[in-house]
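Dig into what follows:
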Amino acid sequence: MKKTRTNKNAVGTERGQSLVELSSMLLVILILVAGAVDLGMGFFSFVAVRDAAQEGALYGSLYPTDTSGITNRVRGESSAPVDLSDVSKVTVSISTTAGACRGGGVTVTVSYNYPISMPLLSTILGRTTIPLNASVTDTIINPKCP
């Protein structure tokens, strides 16, 4: 009967290998998940900005000359995830065509710079904010053209 020799020391040297592989891959996975969460929050902020522009354009289709009313409608649309009432972070611009009367268009543009919270993502992109711009154009319903 032939005896096989096993090296008992080989098993002992590989004992920590799995732990090292797990810790290195776990770090990569956590960075990817954190980046996905940050970009997901950025997309959620874009949806809030787009909805605010849409609300302002809807109001502007009925009252195209009331620029302060359109701006107030946009700024009152949401406070989270984007505080639209903060004039230092969110800009609103309004333009009309065809003399601001029926059949023309009112365009509301809302701009916001989304701050990236993950440092590695800002290093990859080369900036600390992502510009979010939403522009909505609606047809003016009221008043009649002279």
